[in-house]
Design goal:
Elements: H1 5-14, E1 22-34, E2 41-46, E3 55-58, E4 62-69, E5 79-81, E6 107-113, E7 118-123, E8 135-141, E9 153-162, H2 167-174, E10 189-192, E11 199-201, E12 207-214, E13 220-225, E14 230-235, E15 238-245, E16 247-250, E17 255-261, E18 269-277, E19 294-300, E20 339-349, E21 355-359, H3 371-377, E22 393-396, E23 401-408, E24 414-418, E25 423-428, E26 449-450, E27 452-455, E28 459-466, E29 471-477, H4 480-485, E30 488-493, H5 495-498, H6 505-514, H7 567-576, H8 585-588
Parallel strand pairs: 1-4, 3-8, 9-12, 11-19, 20-23, 22-30
Antiparallel strand pairs: 1-2, 4-6, 5-7, 7-8, 9-10, 12-17, 13-16, 13-18, 14-15, 14-17, 18-19, 20-21, 23-28, 24-27, 24-29, 25-26, 25-28, 29-30
Length: about 600
């Protein structure tokens, strides 16, 4: 890693230079049999265990994760959601964008600086894989936490939708010409900390910092805690000025940190109601509420006391408006911009009649060469979006101020996430406000900053960020099913600094095993990168997800259905149906 004055300044600001450590973990990604809601199914875990482990470090630390793919029949990889990846864009994780998929039996190393504190998470960014379970919390502690001393303990609270079918057949059913309503798969249940019946100790006189993470593939989540206000202190990884809330709404990938206290008058056990929202827009009074899955967790003061307080008395959810949160540092709105980017989103159909999701009329279509490899190897041509193919590329100069406008031309709300950055939310218009009017209006003077913003139905949002982080960064809806439909764009940021970028040997080796070229334009043309011959402009009609399909000449023949498919695996699944268990190595052999 190349050291820079920016790193020195960042670490000095947090006062962690002397405490910086290198944290190394060795993980094996494996199939696990689990039944978190009583329904048994194969899930993707780590080291034959699921849920996946929590990672915890301190700002200024370097994290090294040696990730071995022990799945046998799928490729894999990890994205570190919300981490800036300063000077390490190749470690961001999206397969086909900044790295090649990690084949079965191979290992990839992720090594990066944790330059900012906050509540983050990791998840697979490999072709719809993370709804099968490969995700977990990543907590970066702050020795100089401005709220230090105001709480005694921490609670990590994850919420997620859960599906009884695996991701590949779900997406195959969705990407079908008969899906005329562009309907995504609907979840079968809700999980809290990837299980049911979650309880947290709640002791008089103590204040708790709750780190809420929505790890859903689709649904937003509402939270309410009986008889206790929430003191908000952070959204995504931005400290905010304290504000009292009673209801929270977290879209997929969003995080909130809040404080909650057990005071003298408290007694008994207090329910935490979490409700999945699959309503198109809960703020629209004309739409029927649609909260098909609820779960109650508990703040427990007395295990012998009844768990009988009512949790079904919320007729209308009135969550705090995160765009009104004020950053603790009072950082003012970036006053102007150099580059205007406008994305108009709507569902669409491709030339074969398949349902897709489009930015400005085009879905994202993955190409043969990972985009960061193209940026590193085509020389001066890397400033020309043509060389990247139909990944909805946007090229911005290092140092530019980017104004990003999202026009949501759909009847549903959508959470949009930007890799490598936290943007300022200058404006999020009310539902049915229509498209951005094309001119700047009275924006928020000290806007909140986060990496995932929810844009309401038939409405728009205006974001700004500084392009000071050279790399290739995705901007996409964080509904994983919509990613598979193509709702993604790509920022090629500071391309001049990406020329000649070097890649780790193990990353390159995984490309070689998978038969993926690592030089040239989107199809590997090194002679004339501006030649678009062979670039994909229509999405494939056959969807195989993360299924490992060996390239020509590779004699490996694993199962190809993305499931536990050998006779031994089926026998193991039958034996373990309905109870938590993990497969032994012999049962995982193909």
């Amino acid at each position: 890693m190349i050291w820079s004055p920016f790193f020195s300044l960042a670490l000095l600001c947090f006062g962690t230079v002397a405490r910086a450590a290198v944290i190394t973990v060795n993980w094996n990604v494996t199939w696990v049999w689990a039944s978190p809601d009583g329904f048994g199914r194969p899930v993707i875990g780590i080291d034959n265990q699921w849920p996946c482990p929590k990672l915890e470090a301190t700002v200024g630390d370097t994290l090294i994760v040696n990730l071995h793919n022990g799945l046998g029949n799928q490729t894999t990889g990890l994205h570190w959601h919300g981490i800036n990846q300063l000077q390490t864009p190749e470690m961001d994780g999206p397969s086909g964008v900044v790295q090649c998929p990690t084949p079965p039996g191979s290992t990839v190393q992720y090594k990066f600086l944790l330059d900012e504190p906050g509540t983050f998470w990791y998840h697979s960014h490999e072709k719809g894989q993370y709804p099968d379970g490969l995700r977990g919390p990543l907590i970066v502690q702050d020795p100089n936490d401005p709220y230090k001393g105001k709480y005694d303990e921490e609670i990590v609270l994850t919420v997620s939708d859960w599906y009884h079918q695996q991701s590949i057949p779900l997406v195959q059913s969705m990407l079908n010409p008969s899906n005329t309503r562009f309907a995504p798969p609907l979840p079968d249940t809700i999980l809290v900390n990837d299980k049911k019946d979650v309880k947290f100790n709640f002791v008089k006189g103590k204040t708790y910092r709750v780190r809420l993470i929505n790890m859903s593939a689709f649904a937003s989540a509402f939270l309410w805690i009986d008889s206790h206000p929430l003191t908000m202190i952070m959204s995504d990884a931005t400290y905010i000025q304290t504000e009292t809330a009673y209801h929270l709404h977290a879209s997929s990938a969003q995080r909130y940190d809040f404080l909650i206290s057990a005071i003298d008058r408290d007694s008994g056990n207090y329910p935490i109601l979490l409700a999945l929202d699959i309503n198109r827009d809960f703020r629209n009074a004309t739409l029927a509420p649609n909260f098909p899955h609820n779960q109650t967790a508990w703040l427990v003061m007395d295990e012998n006391a009844p768990f009988t307080r009512l949790t079904n008395n919320i007729d209308v959810w009135r969550p705090a408006d995160d765009t009104h949160f004020k950053p603790l540092d009072n950082l003012a709105m970036i006053p102007s911009y150099d580059h205007l980017v406008q994305f108009d989103f709507r569902f669409c159909r491709d030339a074969n009649g398949y349902p897709r999701a489009c930015f400005n009329g085009k879905p994202f279509i993955g190409q043969k060469v990972p985009s960061l490899y193209t940026a590193a190897t085509v020389g001066e041509n890397n400033t020309n979006p043509v060389v990247y193919g139909q990944i909805n590329p946007v090229v911005v100069k290092k140092g530019d101020i980017v104004q990003l406008v999202i026009n949501n031309q759909d009847a549903g709300t959508h959470p949009f996430h930007l890799h490598g950055h936290r943007f300022q939310i200058l404006d999020r218009a009310r539902p049915y406000a229509g498209d951005w009017p094309g001119r700047d209006v009275n924006y928020i003077s000290t806007p909140n900053r986060r990496d995932t913003v929810t844009v309401w139905s038939w409405s728009h949002a205006v974001l700004r960020f500084r392009a000071t982080n050279p790399g290739v960064w995705l901007f996409h809806c964080h509904v994983e099913w919509h990613v598979e439909m193509g709702l993604t764009a790509t920022f090629i940021e500071g391309p001049e600094e990406l020329r000649g970028h070097q890649f780790p040997a193990d990353h390159l080796e995984n490309c070689r095993i998978g038969g993926v070229p690592t030089r040239g334009n989107a199809v590997g043309n090194t002679v004339n990168p501006l030649d678009t011959t062979g670039m994909l402009t229509i999405s494939p009609t056959v969807y195989t997800g993360a299924t490992w399909i060996p390239p020509a000449g590779n004699t490996t023949t694993p199962a190809r259905d993305g499931s536990i498919s050998s006779p031994a695996r089926r026998r193991a699944a039958s034996r373990l149906q309905g109870r938590d268990a993990v497969f032994g190595d012999s049962e995982l052999m193909i």
